[in-house]
Amino acid sequence: MAEPGGGQAYARLVRAQIRSQTQYRLSFAIDVASCALGTLVEAAVVLVVFRVSPTVGGFGLREVLVMSALAAFAFDLADLLVGNIERLSTYVRKGTLDTILIRPLRVLPQLLATDFALRRVGRVAQSSVLLVAVLIYADIDWTPARALMLALTPLAGCALFAAVFLLGACVAFWFVESGEIANAFTYGGKEFARYPATIYPGLLRRVFGYGVGLALVGYQPALFLTGHADPLGGPNWLAWTSPAAAALAWTIALLVWRTGIRHYRSTGS
Questions:
Q1: Count of the separate structural domains present in the chain
Q2: Most exposed: 7, 17, 176, 234, by fewest CB within 10 Å?
Q3: Does 60 map to a domain?
Q4: What is the pLDDT of residues 10-64, one digit of tens each?
Q5: CA gap 61, 69 in Å, rounded
């Protein structure tokens, strides 16, 4: 029998993970439901904020909900696809990475396939439903350009968050207990992207909003979709730069990943 190619091997790893996670169906259903509940709670937080204030950073409920829903969907999709890379610090500490390195397959796809968490599908499904509901509520005046923006933004946002996940995980090559550092940029980045950039101090906006690119995930696309002018004076074309920002982030993340793999020294296990 012929040996499977790389793509077939990764697909088999993912299928094996899916089979193992769905063996106990009730437990799996509870996991999916609990993941989905998290998205509803996050949306409820935005509503609670607007119960005590009519605007946030100069924006009304409709605009902030669009920002929040775009950022949540992009993040949840990235979390489903590459979120398990955050376990890299555990692999390094326990020496599990050694066993992955000696296999005749690429290391990064192996890590992504090995711990694929199907339960996160529930969160993606919930955030996609929420995004549709929010877009209907926002009563957007649709044009071809805005429809294209809506198709582009979640994919570019997903790619950007995925690069942030990978960069955060790479810290483990130099500092094993890096979980909290990585979470500050991944889950913290999601919270940053869910609200208008106008509520943050100038330094945070420059570093995280436009340096890391988080303002291009929810804030700038929501401005374009709702026709709201940027109070900070940013041009409309900024909303279209999210794919370029995602490509740059992936270039940096892969360079750091390769440097980290070369820097890694076995635990001797």
A1: 1
A2: 7
A3: yes
A4: 777 777 777 777 777 777 777 777 766 777 787 788 888 888 888 898 899 999 9
A5: 12
Q: Could you tell me how many residues make up the chain?
A: 269
103 Cβ partners below 8 Å, 6+ apart?
Answer: 110
* b/e per residue 217-238 (b: at least 16 CB within 10 A): bbbbbbbbbbebebebebeeeb
The boundaries of the domain holding residue 161 are 6-263
Q: What is the Cα–Cα distance from 2 to 178, expressed in whole angstroms?
A: 41
Q: Tell me the two tokens of residue 72.
A: 């949540």
Backbone phi, psi, residue 59, to 5°: -120, 150
Residue 269 counted as domain residue: no
Distance, in Å, from the CA atom of 166 to the CA atom of 186, rounded to the nearest integer, reads: 9
Cα torsion angle, 164, 154, 126, 30, sign: negative
> Any residues with CB less than 8 A from the CB of 101 and at least 6 apart, and which?
107, 264, 266
Q: Amino acid identity, residue 199?
A: I
Question: Would you say residue 268 lies in a domain?
Answer: no
- Give, as one character, the DSSP assignment of residue 230: P
Say how many C-beta atoms besides its own lie within 10 A of residue 201's C-beta: 8
CB atoms within 10 A of CB 252: 13
The predicted-structure confidence for 166-203, as pLDDT tens digits, reads as follows: 998 888 888 777 667 777 888 888 889 999 999 999 99
57 within a domain of the structure (yes/no):
yes
